[in-house]
Amino acid sequence: MTTRVAIVGGTGKLGAVIRAVTEAEDGFEVVASLSSRDDLSAIGEADLVVDASTPAVSLEVVRAAIEHGVNVLVGTSGWSAERIALVRPLVAASGTGAVFVPNFSLGSVMGTALSAAAAPFFASIEIIEAHRETKIDSPSGTAVRTAELIAAARAGVGPVVAPHVDQRARGQQVASVPVHSLRRPGVVARQEVVLSGPGESLSIVHDTIDPALAYAPGIRLALAAARDARGVHVGLDSFLDIGIRIPDGQPAEPPMDDQVPGQVARVTES
Questions:
Q1: Is the pTM of this model over 0.85?
Q2: Within 13 Å of residue 246, how many CA atoms lie on the same side as its CB?
Q3: Which amino acids are annotated catalytic?
Q4: Which residues is 37 bridged to in the sheet?
């Protein structure tokens, strides 16, 4: 049976990648590709809505999908744990499914999981993320997800130690973790988590080089999962056995090697 897909934000960079993957995937058919400004009535003809719109529009897209009784896959950034909590009762009441994916890159998911696994052992943790200058929101959804999982992993030992947070140059605190966002040309997407302890530091770095290659495996996984989902799920790790314990207690977001195309995951220690 073919799953009819409506993509909101299908004219954007991420939307174009999602549309190409969906059109090439057996069992899926794109029946509507809307911009972030288009009327949303067409999503009622779909079996699955994929949201790749903008943070300002995304909540409206999710609500519209739920009201139409259609499952939704959200790739739009800006969905913190608190924001996801707003739609949980709506999803539960409608009997639909909502899957939130902060990052479709398997390497990024792995980097986030590694950071959360290491978090209880380092009191000082900061995140530096960089994206194209055209990305309109900050911090990135991936950075927010990483910070939330770091905080959950440290539930038994306390929040991250972050001095001088009253100074604007110290970044934005997300779940006690300072996050520093760069928006500049010459980069696609990059995240570095720096964990520091007495006499040592550990950096976990993920670089996206080619989004079309890096995101495709995760998009295929997410499409299949979102089609049949019930309730709210957050992160590709919800559907992957990555062999690393992800902390409990989120409504929220995974060894990478060169067999995953289009991206580089690197762990360095000094």
A1: yes
A2: 26
A3: 131, 135
A4: none
